[in-house]
Amino acid sequence: MNTIGAVRLASGERVTSGDGVTFAAAGALIAQKLSLSRTGWNARFEFEIAAGSWVSLLGPSGAGKTTLLELVAGFEKASSGTLFFENVSLLDEPIHRRPIAYVFQQNALFPSLTAEQNLLLAMHDTKLPEGEKKERVRSMARRVQLEARLQHRPSQLSGGELARMNLARALLRSAKLLLLDEPFAALDAPLRREMTALVRELHAENKFTTLCVTHHPEDAFLFSDRILVFSQGRIVADGSPRDLAHFPKSVEVAKLLDAGLIVQKENATFYVRKDQLTCRDSVRATFSQPQNLQFENWKLGETGDGIVLVCLNSGRYYALDAPESFGGTLYFDADKVVKF
User: Fold this and answer.
1) CA–CA separation, 170 vs 123, rounded Å?
2) Domain limits of the chain?
3) DSSP letters of 139-191?
4) 33 φψ region: left (φ > 0), alpha (ψ -120 to 50), beta (else)
5) Please, are residues 232 and 248 in contact by the beta-carbon 8 Å criterion?
6) What is the dihedral sign for C-alpha 64, 62, 38, 105?
7) Is 203 helix (H, G, I), strand (E, B) or coil?
């Protein structure tokens, strides 16, 4: 097993071992040249995640998000590279010894058992007395608002209650790393966000490190300390929600984040955040101070949606012609524009 021995690292301190492996402050999750190769497909990841962070993994299906979770959990075996957590190599640890709780997309409960029995199974390998196990289960059930449903079977629970059950069972493992593989994807948007907010509260209370797979950029921006954007088995962007929304690295990243409007004019591509768009009911030659307008359910600008770049730089503002349903001409500050 690779460790750094008895050395204790202060926050931010870094040490490089004799074999070239870099260690960071205790609690960090570090991947260096971590790869998984399959026929016709290869994933390769490098990152360092601070202890206690909430990190969203965002990207299309097949981009490598779940693959990364499976490498961390041990469900997939890495082809090469290193993966360290708290300065211990996870790749050297069997699955049952990794300090990980994994919440899957699918319901993984035993249908013939009650909710309480399913939760007790999560603690089968602990050495606590049975009475203490049951008390921990009841305490967790209260925390996720399931105490009144402990004697019910999974078939008697609603979709939201099943999601709470899967979450509670994972958290009873007292893990330091929480892996969420879109466990609330089947729920409607309000309930999905309610559940994510609950996990965020538990994350803050227990100070564990969370990796959360999502297809919903708005959820990633709302809950994350940091976002990793995935494409074709690679991390193509890495930063805080604010940094990524303000300065996406590429058109591909801007589209995946869905945080702004993309406009193409001749050989140039421009990006502006949704919250920078303002509107006036006036001709496009008028550049007086526009009034703010809130946009909801905006999709990325394409030629088919009627939004066309009119002038690249007319004094202080850029201008876009928009469909009448959007209220006329759109304006945004030229200083806020990212040009790719």
Assistant:
1) 10
2) 15-99+175-244, 259-339
3) HHHHHTT-GGGTTS-GGGS-HHHHHHHHHHHHHTT--SEEEEESTTTTS-HHH
4) left
5) no
6) positive
7) helix
- Which tokens sit at 138? 């009841």
**Tokens linked to 14:** 């870094």
Buried b (16+ CB within 10 A) or exposed e, 15-33: eeeeeebebbbbbbbbbee
Contacts 24+ apart (CB under 8 A), 118-126: 118/154, 118/165, 118/169, 119/150, 119/165, 119/168, 119/169, 119/172, 121/169, 122/169, 122/170, 122/172, 122/173, 123/172, 123/173, 125/96
pLDDT band at residue 113, thresholds of 50, 70 and 90? very high
Confidence tier at 293 by pLDDT (50, 70, 90): very low
Contacts of 339 (CB under 8 A, 6+ apart): 268, 269, 270, 271
- 175 contacts 206 by C-beta, under 8 angstroms: no
pTM of the full structure = 0.76
Mean pLDDT over the full length of the chain: 76
- Residue 115, token pair as written in the block: 């909710």
The enclosing H or E element of 118 equals: helix 115-121
| DSSP-assigned letter for residue 270 | E
**Residue 333: its pLDDT value, please?**
56
Q: Domain 15-99+175-244: what homologous superfamily?
A: P-loop containing nucleotide triphosphate hydrolases (3.40.50.300)
